[in-house]
Amino acid sequence: MGDWMINVTLQPVVIGTGSPDAVGRLAYADGKLVAVLVRLSDELHAADGLAGQWCVEAGFGACDVGVLSVQFPGLEAARNWIAERISVKPLAA
After folding, report:
1. 1 within domain boundaries
2. 3 in a structural domain
3. pTM for the full predicted model
4. How many domains does the chain have?
5. Quick check: 34 and 63 in contact, CB under 8 A?
C-alpha cells in the first residue's frame, strides 16, 4: 500500500451488469463508498488484452471517472489509486 493515510477497503460483490463482467468490489475510503470496481472477464475481454484488469464501473466524489476509463492490473493498484485520489480531494466530513 502507498504512503497514504486513507484506509481503503474492498468488499467482494457480484454486480448485475447484464454481462459476464460481474465480479466486483465495493471500494470504501475511511468507511465511505467511493467506487464500484469490476473485473473484466476473459469471455468478453480476451481479444482486447484487458481480461483480468479491474476497472471503475462507478465512482463517487474524487473517484468519479468515466466508466471503464481507468484500468488496473490488480486490486492493490486500484487501492493505491483510490487512496491517492482521496488524498488530493478529501472526503467531506
Report:
1. no
2. no
3. 0.86
4. 1
5. yes
Q: What is the pLDDT of residues 4-29, one digit of tens each?
A: 478 999 999 999 989 999 999 999 99
Helix, strand, coil in percent for the chain, rounding step 5: 25, 30, 45
Contact criterion met (CB below 8 Å) for 7 and 89: no
CA dihedral angle for residue 71, residue 74, residue 80, residue 86, rounded to 10 degrees: 50
Residue 18 lies in a domain: yes
56 in a structural domain: yes
Range(s) of the domain holding residue 58: 8-88
Reported as a single tens digit per residue, the pLDDT across 28-78 is: 999 999 999 999 999 999 888 889 999 999 999 999 987 667 889 999 999
